[in-house]
Design brief:
The protein is mainly alpha-helical and 339 residues long. It has a domain of 202 residues: Orthogonal Bundle (MetI-like fold). The longest helix has 35 residues. It is found in: Cell membrane. It is a multi-pass membrane protein. This is ABC transporter permease.
């Protein structure tokens, strides 16, 4: 018996495999495999809980705060804040009008915060960098000192600041006992550290004490990637310690320092816990940071609309400074790489 000849499809007769489109013709759609689709969607599914929490914790309250800044929200509308009268930009005009008490107080608080942030960030970076450079040398007890330097950063903020508040007490605080009673500095009369102009320096001391270990940790980690051969070669060429720091250390950690300074700036400018725990609800005028000032405007005077407008202005200021800082630092890095 002879079998019947097998009939081939037209496209197979043309020389192609079954299912292949002829040359120049439309190609069939590419079928995505289910396994590949699952692998592509998996990262987004893993990020979804974090995005939902971010939306719930940060974005929703921020949007509500922006809406509240356009209303005359006082204690009379706390039960149903949506019934508060719509005032438009009146709260913003009141906050930026320096000829009126509210705007004048906000401007004074803003300038105090700028000075405080400049000093705190500068001292934190200076102390952290100096300690990190010092810790690069091998000596006995280096591990113990590293752990000791990180203690202020590891302590809870409230416990640390409360301890400092007791230390700054006028009559029985350790600071006055050491300065006046033991060293005889400043006379026999004890100093008010938590009142008057001295409150600014007390707040700055606490801020630097709890902030510089973070700078130390970041710079020390960055210095681990700097080859020791560079320092040895520089020493053979006659470079001193200061020239090595200037020519090797600082350029090597330049990118890390840019991020570090930005993070320290945002943390310090927004710091609320330190002045609130140190001074309470009403900070002295010399230490009236903008975070505690907004709190007083909202929860002490019960004018939540004006306080929300101040918060939005603070947010815009920080966004503007951050964008400008990133623009100029990125531009400077590109110019340096082009050379």
């Amino acid at each position: 018996m002879t079998s019947a000849p097998t009939t081939l499809p037209p496209d197979a007769k043309a020389g192609g495999r079954a299912g292949r489109a002829p040359a120049g013709g439309p190609r069939p759609g590419r079928v995505r495999r289910p396994g590949r689709l699952r692998r592509t969607a998996l990262p987004y599914l893993l990020l979804l809980p974090a995005l939902l929490l971010e939306l719930l914790i940060h974005l929703v309250p921020m949007v509500m705060g922006i809406v509240m800044s356009f209303r005359q929200l006082t204690q009379f509308f706390i039960r149903d804040w949506s019934r508060a009268p719509w005032t438009g930009f009146d709260n913003y005009r009141l906050a930026v009008d320096v000829n009126r008490p509210v705007g004048e107080a906000l401007l004074g608080s803003f300038l105090t915060t700028c000075l405080f942030t400049l000093l705190s960030v500068g001292l934190c970076w200076l102390l952290g960098t100096a300690a990190a450079v010092f810790m690069q040398e091998t000596f006995r007890g280096r591990g113990f000192l590293r752990a000791l330097f990180l203690v202020p950063y590891a302590l809870p903020v409230y416990a640390a600041v409360i301890t400092w508040a007791f230390m700054f007490q006028r009559d029985n605080g350790m600071v006055n006992h050491l300065l006046h009673d033991q060293l005889g500095l400043g006379g026999a009369e004890h100093t008010f550290w938590l009142l008057g102009d001295n409150s600014f320096w007390a707040l700055l001391t606490v801020s630097v004490w709890k902030g510089w270990p973070f700078a130390f940790l970041i710079v020390m980690a960055a210095l681990q990637n700097v080859p020791r051969d560079l320092y040895e070669a520089a020493a053979l060429d006659g470079a001193g310690i200061w020239q090595q720091i200037r020519r090797i250390t600082l350029p090597s950690v330049g990118a890390v320092n840019q991020v570090l300074i930005l993070v320290l700036f945002l943390w310090t400018f927004n710091d609320f816990n330190t002045p609130f725990v140190l001074f309470g609800k009403s900070a002295p005028e010399a230490a009236d940071l903008i975070s505690i000032h907004i709190y007083q405007s909202s929860f002490v005077t019960w004018n939540f609309g004006t306080g929300s407008a101040m918060s939005v202005l603070l947010l815009l200021f920080l966004l503007l400074v951050t964008a400008g800082y990133l623009f100029f630092t990125t531009r400077g890095r590109k110019d340096a790489d082009a050379r």
